[in-house]
Design a protein that fits this description.
Keywords: ATP-binding, Nucleotide-binding
Strand order of the largest sheet: 5-6-7-3-8-9
Number of domains: 1
Organism: Allokutzneria oryzae
InterPro entries: AAA+_ATPase (IPR003593), ABC_transporter-like_ATP-bd (IPR003439), P-loop_NTPase (IPR027417)
Order of helices and strands: EEEHEEHHHEHEEEH
CATH architecture: 3-Layer(aba) Sandwich
Radius of gyration: 17 Å
GO molecular function: ATP binding
Strand content: 25-35%
Structural class: alpha/beta
Bound molecules: adenosine-5'-triphosphate
Shape: globular
CATH class: Alpha Beta
Protein name: ABC transporter ATP-binding protein
Number of helices: 6
CATH superfamily: P-loop containing nucleotide triphosphate hydrolases
Length: about 200
């Protein structure tokens, strides 16, 4: 088991957002969590990546994590190449071969010398995703990873996800839309602070 979540609770003040969330992300699996705006999806991911301490419950994982936040943490004044270099040092990578391969897959290699402040929203998101994946983590935590992507890039994203899965990597994909269900191994709905299987979630409407 690569990632295991047990009885997670979280409250902001008196607002209970997570009320006992339990699930697992097995090795080599693509797992989705969908839920409406404000359901607590980002809260869940922030807990899983260690950015937020939950009110209760436990998270355990093997191997390295990669986190692609909903809001890209980029420096407007740095170029794309400078971001890659910065993350190369932070991750302790010997070279940028895989990062450049990811840029080819996502089709934005031409933007290497551009300052981030000049990039379109979709291209920023491609960089955001590349920075989360370039150290080849065992488990990827992706918060709305394809927001702003055109259709071609959206399909390339899923090709990349399938490639990672075939190498035994896992990904947790958070989205407010359930239209990717057939591309995932497991799909959970986050509703009223707990996870439900799609059929049970529909029956509860
Ligand atoms: N730092 C915070 N302080 C107080 N309340 C917060 C904080 N962060 C989130 N919330 C509240 O917690 C709830 C869940 O927010 P969260 O961002 O996790 O939802 P989400 O499912 O990711 O939504 P979206 O699909 O709109 O991104 C919302 O009601 C939100 O207003």
């Amino acid at each position: 088991m690569t990632l295991s979540v047990t009885g997670l609770h979280h409250a902001y003040g008196r607002r209970q957002v997570l009320r006992g969330v339990s699930f697992q992300v097995p090795e080599g699996a693509l797992v989705g969590v969908v839920g409406e705006n404000g359901a607590g999806k980002t809260t869940l991911l922030r807990i899983l990546c260690g950015e937020l301490t939950p009110t209760g419950g436990a998270v355990a994982h093997d191997g390295r994590l990669g986190y692609c936040p909903q809001q890209a943490v980029l420096n407007e004044a740095f170029t794309v190449a400078q971001h890659l270099r910065y993350f190369q040092v932070a991750y302790g990578l010997p070279d940028l071969r895989y990062a450049h391969e990811l840029m080819e897959i996502l089709n934005f290699t031409d933007y290497l010398p551009e300052r981030v402040g000049h990039l379109s929203g979709g291209t920023r998101q491609k960089l955001n995703l590349t920075l989360a994946v370039m150290h080849d983590p065992d488990v990827l935590l992706l918060d709305e990873p394809y927001q702003g992507f055109d259709w071609e890039t959206y399909l390339r994203f899923w090709d990349l996800a399938a490639q990672l899965r075939s190498r035994g990597r896992s990904a947790l994909v958070i989205s407010h839309l359930a239209h990717d269900a057939d591309r995932l191994d497991h799909l959970h709905h986050l509703r009223a602070g707990v996870l439900r299987q799609p059929a049970a979630a529909a029956a509860g409407d």
